Automatic annotation (TrEMBL):
<protein>
    <submittedName>
        <fullName>Cell division protein FtsL</fullName>
    </submittedName>
</protein>
<keyword id="KW-0812">Transmembrane</keyword>
<dbReference type="GO" id="GO:0051301">
    <property type="term" value="P:cell division"/>
</dbReference>
<feature type="compositionally biased region" description="Basic and acidic residues">
    <location>
        <begin position="58"/>
        <end position="78"/>
    </location>
</feature>
<keyword id="KW-0472">Membrane</keyword>
<keyword id="KW-1133">Transmembrane helix</keyword>
<keyword id="KW-0132">Cell division</keyword>
<feature type="transmembrane region" description="Helical">
    <location>
        <begin position="12"/>
        <end position="31"/>
    </location>
</feature>
<feature type="region of interest" description="Disordered">
    <location>
        <begin position="49"/>
        <end position="118"/>
    </location>
</feature>
<dbReference type="InterPro" id="IPR007060">
    <property type="entry name" value="FtsL/DivIC"/>
</dbReference>
<dbReference type="Pfam" id="PF04977">
    <property type="entry name" value="DivIC"/>
</dbReference>
<keyword id="KW-0131">Cell cycle</keyword>
């Protein structure tokens, strides 16, 4: 029985199978690396989202504290503004309703020192 022709016929088939298996392994390795890279990016983006959410909440608290009526009044007094007196209104025909008066500065009430986080 000659072994030469059957071995020669199997060589291309074995080589094809080895190349397919090697190519499949390399493809799986590249796919796995790509998924790991995406996972790291996702982790970094989640961390950044958390940081930005915390910063947004801190800024919102600051806006809320500066928008409070007592804070607005204090800042207005610092700018030299005074509370208005009785208002007067103009009607559509030009009539004045109410008695206009000049706003006068009352003595500023004593304010307690505030402690801010900044």
């Amino acid at each position: 029985m000659p072994s030469g022709p059957s071995t020669a016929a199997r060589t291309p088939f074995v080589l094809l199978v080895v190349l397919l298996l090697g190519g499949g392994l390399i493809t799986l390795l590249l796919l796995n690396s790509s998924l790991n890279e995406g996972s790291f990016k996702l982790s970094e983006l989640k961390k950044r989202t958390t940081e930005l959410t915390d910063e947004e909440q801190e800024l919102q608290r600051e806006v809320d504290s500066r928008s409070a009526p007592d804070a607005l009044e204090r800042r207005a007094r610092e700018l030299g503004m005074v509370p208005g007196g009785n208002p007067a209104f103009l009607g559509p025909d030009g009539t004045v309703r109410g008695v206009p008066s000049v706003a006068t500065a009352d003595p500023a009430p004593p304010t307690a020192p505030t402690t801010s986080g900044r």
